[in-house]
Each structure stands twice: as C-alpha cells, then as structure tokens.
Amino acid sequence: MKVPVGDIPMLTSSLREAALLDGPAVLPIPGREQPDDPIEAFVADDVALVVETSGSTAAPKRVMLSGAALRASARATSHWFGGVHGQWLLALPATYIAGVQVLVRSLVAGTEPAVLGSGGFTPAAFVEAARTLDPDRPWFTSLVPVQLARLVEAAGDDRAVRAALGSFERILLGGQAAPAGLVDQAAALGARVHRTYGSSETAGGCVYDGTPLDRVDVRIVDGEVQLAGPMLAEGYLGDPERTERTFMVDADGRRWYRTGDLGSLDDDGRLRITGRADDVMISGGVKVVLGEVERAVHAVDGFADAVVVAVPDPEWGERAAVVGAGAAARATGALDALRTATDAAGLPPAGRPVRIVVVDELPRLATGKPDRVAASALAAGA
C-alpha cells in the first residue's frame, strides 16, 4: 500500500506490519493523502518495502526490499553500536531509505522515534525535536552533510545546538561524501559522527567508517565496489533487466550488488570510494574521475559543497566545471586556486577545472544530496 510520509504514525504502523509481520508491502510517498491504489498485487509476497532511489545522477528507481533485509540492516547497525538499543530522531525524509531505516531501527529496538517538525530542517527544529527524546536512553540520528554543516555553523553561537550535538550517542552521516574537515569540526563540538556508505539497494548504510557491518562482504572487481550480505534488495520494481544487470550470483551461490561506485580497499580492509563508474569523463584522451576532482575542490575554502560536472569542450572533448555558490565562487583568482588544488592532489592536467558556474544556491534533492542532473544542466547552459 502507498503510505503518506506526512503521517509518520501511520507509516510506522504500516512498516511494523510489513517489516516485522510480513504484512502488505509499503511504498512511502510525499504528503498526507493516502491513495487507494495498492502495490502489494505487483510485488512478491516477501517484499516489505518499495522505496525510490534519490535520483541524484539518473532517473529514480523503485527498489524492492524484503522484511528480512530491513531487519538484517537494523540489527547490523545495533551490533555495530555494541548491542545498545536507544531512541532515534527522524530528521530525514521518510520517502527515502535513510529515513525509513530510522523507523525500522526504532521498531526493531522497540522504541518510539522522535520526529522533526513539519517546517523543514533547521538547527532550532533539531534542538526542539531532541528535547522530546527520552533522557534515560541513548540517542541516535541519521543526517546528511548539509544538515550537519548547518548544525556545526549554528553551534558556534548557540549553546543549545552545541549541547544537542554532543548529546547523541551516535550520529550517522551518509548520502554523499562529507566536505573536508566537517566531521572533525563536529567532533570538536562533542558530536560522535560516523560516515556511512550504502544505498537503497543495501537497505541503507552497510559500511561504517570504511568498515563493513556484520555479515557484509566487500570486494573490488575491475575498480567497481561490489557488496554482499543479507540486507540486499530483491531488485527493481517492474525492471527485471536492470535487476539482472545490477545483482549477480557467483558460482558458489553468493549474491552480489554491483554498486557502480569506484573504490579500493586499504591494507586494513577499509573501503575508500573514489567516484562513480558512470561519472568518468574522457578529456583529451585521459580518463578523469570527477569524484576525485570534486574531492580536491572541496578542500578549497568556500567550496566544501561545490559540485563538479563535465562540460563539452571543442578541443578536449570534455572538461571539468565547478558549480558553486557564495563569495568564494565569485572571488578573483578562485579558478586558479581550484586548479592549484587539483594539481596538488596529483590529478592530471585534464582534471583541472575550466570554469566556475556561480549560482545563488546549489540545487538539491529532498534528501539534501546535490542534484547533479540539475547542476550539469546549469553548467551546460552557462
């Protein structure tokens, strides 16, 4: 059934039936009105949740997850926390997997989640919601980098925000790579932040601080990150061809998810993501991973949130352009500073940005992730 995320008690109740009791599948949708077109007739009996991907780089997909996968993900997170069951604060949209998993983890823990007010995310709203949490339980929440950055900025002048940040047992940070220095700044304020990696296809984060959660396996095949574990999705609703391309079964019967991300494993087994396999441009015959260019750009003051995209070039084929907001993007010499940063990062000359596209505000999705499709359109039209 389609359940409006504006009615969190209804959504939580529906998720309880679907994820814990094998009831009808749930598709969270924006708003408060509940359509009368059920989805359970279109999915297998073991599917508990159909959730849309964010669509930051392509058209959104509807991912089918079983109740067993949702429970496995929630329990793996609890195990990583040392078996501690606490109370969660929902600060993300429940239309996407990160928000849904806050509710599922609460259900598995047997606790009632606190919910951010309907006015959207602000530091004041975060503080107000945190005040409703049970002081006798550990507190947990999931955020995206833009939310944490707002809290860190506000905490400099607001003791209530600083106190709230330091009161959470764990803060999971995911959705995109965190800008350089953000986690350290939060830690200096007393926040215990952990970077997560995962997707709707893995029922949310399944690698924390580079380390796979319990029963999660990671391997690198031809530079691509592949994941296995009990929290993998069943596939994509109405798209068996994409499902077959994305999920593969080894000769030994082990099922793997092809993430489309590029990465490597350090000597200690920690996962490092370098970019997207479909986010590689060919510039002057040289392959350039835009994620690596973006990482270098983020290290420059004032460009922590900037987006790097490929733009056509008559001589090179493609070059990198930076979409940024704020005074730093408008400053004289900004482009030279970005080029210096990419050179210092060891990137080839083909990775040097050719221009900065200045915008009043970076385009973002409801999840807080940058809208890369919109950013590319802005850069192409500049």
UniProtKB/TrEMBL annotation:
One Pfam family from the record: AMP-binding_C
Domain AMP-dependent synthetase/ligase: 37-236
Gene3D superfamilies reported for this sequence: 3.30.300.30, N-terminal domain of ligase-like
Ligase as UniProt keyword: yes
Ranges where the AMP-binding enzyme C-terminal domain occurs: 292-369
Keywords, alphabetical: Ligase
A single MF term (Gene Ontology): ligase activity
PANTHER family in alphabetical order: LONG-CHAIN-FATTY-ACID--COA LIGASE (PTHR43767), NONRIBOSOMAL PEPTIDE SYNTHASE PES1 (EUROFUNG)-RELATED (PTHR43767:SF1)
Protein name: O-succinylbenzoate--CoA ligase
Source species of the chain: Agromyces tropicus
